[in-house]
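Subject: mismatched residue count in predicted assembly?

I count 774 residues in my input, but I want to confirm that the predicted structure covers every chain. Input:
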Amino acid sequence: MLYVVIAYLWVSVLLYLLMGGADFGAGIIELFTSKKNRPRTHRTMYRAIGPIWEANHMWLIIAIVILFVGFPEIYSTMSVSLHIPLTAMLLGIIARGTAFTFRHYDAVVDDMQVIYRRIFMYASCITPLFLGIIAGSAVSGKIDPGAHNFLEGYIFSWLNLFSVAVGIFTVAICGFLAAVYLIGETDNEEDTQRFIAKARTTNIIAAIAGVLVFIAAKIDGIPLKEWVFGNAVGISAITAASLSLVLFWWLVKKGKRFILRVLAGFQVTMILLTTTYRHFPDIVLLKNGAHLSLLENSGHEKTIYSLGLALLIGSIFILPALFYLVYDFQKKKIKS
Amino acid sequence: MDDFIAARSQMALSLGFHIIFSCIGMVMPFFMAVSHYYWIKTNNDVYKNVTKAWSKGVAIFFATGAVSGTVLSFELGLLWPTFMKHAGPIFGMPFSLEGTAFFIEAIALGFFLYGWGRFNKWFHWFTGVIVGISGLISGILVVAANAWMNSPAGFDYVDGQYINIDPIKAMFNKAWFSQSLHMSLAAFAATGFAVAGIHALMILKNKNVLFHTKAFKIAAVFGCIAALLQTVSGDHSAKDIAKRQPAKLAAMEAHFKTESSASLIIGGIPNEKTKTVDYAIRIPGALSFLAHGDFKSEVKGLDQIPADEQPPVAITHYAFQVMVGLGTIMMLIAVLYFIAVLRKKNWRNSKWLLKLFVLATPMGFIAVEAGWTVTEVGRQPWIINGVMKTKDAVTPMPGIAYSFYLFTAVYFSLALIVIYMLYRQIKMVGKLYDVDNG
Ligand code: HDD
Ligand code: HEM
Ligand code: HEM
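Triage response: the counts match. Full output below for your records.
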């Protein structure tokens, strides 16, 4: 059952990255759209993510609940040492979620919209930035539960080159996912071309950010290269991702929405796979060399069993409904 | 500000904020479902407009409820890491089931809000009902988790170790039923009265009377039935507490000395130094009756609780008085309402009744906040009753005070924006949904 729970954790993180990521990315894309085109981008985006954005964000909650029920030590260690970036991410989540809703449900459309939009766009960048920082910090080996001063314990645990680079990389990935997603959501050729251009740009930016992550890892003394290229799974995943990238560039011209989405999703999945596979089951590496492991630091047997059961039963209800929701809104685009 | 006090205040602030949105998120879907049902049955567009107007409000509250809930699930760890390290695996069961309930709620809401005119009418209606049911289930589940903190179960605590963990037993602890029942009723009473009050005000102002009357009726019926049941369930909770948390009961009632035929103290100013209550009304024997169903029985006072395990008396006592006082007023209004409905044909023209409802608009929510203050402050100094003290659970990180100021600022601005939006929503009813005068 432990492996079932771990699989759910991994899949929730992945789905949050993919669906929530495309969702954040939409705000990022809007930020980098010229004033003239913003209203149109906004309309497309709303049509694309409106119905499912609540559901997208549930993956984060599932992941958190799995962590605190099944792996309480990991949850509490991260909560203490990464208090500040977690708080920053939460503020981003609050600002973004509420601004998104206010934009659409405010009965009067006036200058308030400008405020909502600003908040929405900036929060869309900040949230994935800190999400990436948190993920980077977990494996950076900078978390030091035995630290003696505030800076060591609560600031340098996350404010380091590597973590920040991972944060920026995450933002770029979100922008890329959103651009690809939006290609298929437009209702005219001009917009389609615009998003194709955006998908290309964001893809290049993501690649550059990826290189930055490797450079930062080198400077900070993190054996990222070994993690990624030091094992068969890592190498094959990276190769597959690169091949799909070539395919992507070839197909993007044609604006084939379905294949492009699959390819973009595949690339992100491969990235998550390589970065997590090598040091599984350890998900938090501490400064003193100790590891928090999903296998050794899990909750009691009975807890894991009932958690796994709850997740399995939950999926029976959730997955068909979620699938139908997505399917239905893909099939017939909202009229109004 | 002391870090420990700051952490407690931040938790209280976040929960106090979240509970308002979650009550509305749990209850409004039921109101909408009723109105939606009438629309499908009668084809009267006023009902459709009521449903649509409400659903916009719900979307706003749902999003705010969801983000504040997300914040809470992190805050449990950010503020109380030691608590979560030990309690997570024990009381986590309701949270993992709740995840499913939330998910279903979010999906169903997607169907409902974006489904106008796209699905079969009854399917669309049904998705709205699902939103309500899954919201209610998640409310019950979270309260079961909170009940575990009041009445820990499903593990053995031996030499500082938590062993023999049984998450199912933990979920069905002794307090889960009385608390969940009382909370679910509270959500209906508070939301019902708040919504009815707003629509009553609009009727009195003679704006879109047809629209607001239909809306008022639905909300008032739900709110009044819940308010009547609330007192019964409250009494049940009090009897429950007398058994499982005598210290909390003593603090609620400002009952300093153990005695038989204990009198019920109403109002008054508890003095924690002299252990007396000044200026209070006393009803002899009533406390013994309320706690144990017998006027003669003995009720444990604070004198039997070690000094370092006593909850703050004044706050708990005042909060309890506020809840019960408001509960009684709401119950009386409910009785008047049902008499009016039964006896007078044109009851809605009686201005005094509508005025009463306007006055009662905030009462339910104030009672909810007061009730939670009783439950949570009355449990102090324990975070897990009798097992772990709150001060041992708090995060070691210094500077929590700043985090508290930050969240206070954020929540207050959010509250202001939401109130402002609601105001605009109501102002627009005439333009968007008025069918009775063109
Ligand atoms: C509309 C709101 C409302 C109203 C009118 C009342 N309550 Fe209440 N009460 C709550 C809303 C609430 C609450 C916010 O929902 C609480 C907090 C924890 C809980 O489970 O419910 C609560 C808790 C609570 C507790 C503590 C439960 C515990 O700690 O486990 C008791 C003893 C009562 N109530 C008793 C009463 C009585 C005797 C009432 C008689 C009029 C009453 N309540 C009206
Ligand atoms: C939504 C309604 C709730 C409200 C308004 C509420 C209110 C409060 C208040 C006022 C405090 C501070 C008490 C003090 O320190 O003196 C508190 C503390 C706390 N509450 Fe609640 N509570 C609610 C529900 C819950 C639930 C459902 C849980 C968990 C499952 C919970 C967990 C906690 C924790 C962990 C603390 C901090 C430790 C403590 O002070 O004991 N609360 N809450
Ligand atoms: C008595 C206390 C509580 C009640 C009755 C309650 C109820 C609810 C309800 C009905 C919702 C759905 C949102 C809506 O419809 O507006 C919600 C959202 C949420 N609540 Fe609470 N809640 C309580 C306390 C808590 C606590 C202590 C936590 C954290 C551990 C929490 C975590 C969440 C989360 C994560 C969501 C968002 C889910 C979503 O996106 O739909 N809640 N809550």
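Residues A 54, 58, 61; B 18-19, 21-22, 25-26, 61-62, 65-66, 69-70, 72-73, 76, 102, 105-106, 135, 138-139, 142-143, 146, 183 surround protoporphyrin IX containing FE (ligand 3) (CB under 6 Å). Marking this ticket as 'not a bug'.
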